Amino acid sequence: TKDLIRKFRPIWYLQSALLFSVVIAAKSIAYSSFGLDAGGLDLVDKASQTLLWLLGTFVANQALHLFVWEGVFLRKYKSTPPALLMGLATAFLYLVAIYGIMTFIFERPMTGLIVSSGIMAGVLGLAMQNSLADLVAGVSISIERPFKIGDWIELDDGTLGEVVDINWRATHIKSWHNSLYILPNARISNARVHNYSRPEKTYCCWVFVHIPSTVPPTLVRRVLLKAAVESEKVLIDPAPVIRVSEAGGSYKYMVFVHFESYPSHYAGLDDLFMHVWVQCARHGIVPSAVTSEIIMRKGVAEKIKGPSPDDLLAEVELFSEVDEGSRQGLVSKMKVHAIPMGEEVVCQGDQ
Question: Are 191 and 156 a contacting pair, CB within 8 Å?
Fold first, then answer.
């Protein structure tokens, strides 16, 4: 009845009422027709209550799918919820049902089991913290939907490719080289993601063409626009836009166009440039080379002389009282040597 309920949701209410009515009727028939003793009556009572708990969980899970996943979630996010999120919610509902059956029907205290399960969960959480981080990040990615399968994304570390799979642990990205990146979800959730397929699949970009300033700008804009319109790869809606970007020895024109998608824009640029060349050649326009201004000046190299022995000797306090004749005599017998720092020049006791 799943497909029928999706088309006619009021049938869900009828099905729910019918299921509970059948269980209650079966219980009444067992009480009145089989002549059960006290033990048999208790067994029928517990079985019927267990069945009611399971049916309630089944009906609640159906309601969750019909009114939340295929209702509120679909209207808000414009896409079906991820299977991982739906599976976790279903598992939680049935765990609550098992707890209720054991506690209220069979009167088995679950405190010890919960405590031991909590200890075990803590140990497992410590041992599997990276995997749990990937699981939580996978659920977050599934809810937030920053990208989906088929989107082209680029991470802040330069990883670029098409998303081909998203599971509970990792996201698979197919690169331009037909190779596969397998990235943990926790890493992607903390990265800056550039989605080339959102908010729309169409991809826009702009290129620049340099034309000599002697060619009238009105003619150039008409020629470039015609080249963009004649290109089969360029989308007509939104329409191409031609703007003058810079003026000088040559005019710089910006051609702003849209392509069907990000991966198709490379072939689109190739086709656009071919049409630009054809249209310019047809109108006798030769695109100019990119020019730059270079200023050259003739400089005079300054000659820097090293210190002479006379200059160095004048700086030594020991020779400050020596007369000029004696000092010049010393200077005539001296040579300048460059000594690296830390090297010994003379030691006590040397000749």
Answer: yes
- Give the number of other Cβ atoms within 10 Å of residue 192's Cβ: 8
The answer to whether the CB of 271 falls within 8 A of the CB of 232 is: yes
For residue 162, the one-letter residue type is E
Largest CA-CA distance found in the chain, in angstroms, rounded: 144
This model's pTM is above 0.90: no
Q: How far apart are CA 144 and CA 31, in angstroms?
A: 52
**Long-range contact set of residues 237-246: C-beta below 8 Å, sequence gap at least 24:** 238/202, 238/204, 244/217, 245/208
Cα–Cα distance between 164 and 150 in angstroms, integer? 6
CA angle in degrees (0–180, nearest 5) for 178-179-183:
135
pLDDT in tens, 171-229: 999 999 999 999 988 888 888 999 999 888 999 999 999 998 888 999 999 999 999 99
CA distance 286 to 210: 9
How would DSSP label each residue in 107-139?
----HHHHHHHHHHHHHHHHHTHHHHHHHHHHH
Compute and round to an integer the Cα radius of gyration of the chain. 42
Distance separating the N- and C-terminal Cα atoms of the chain: 114
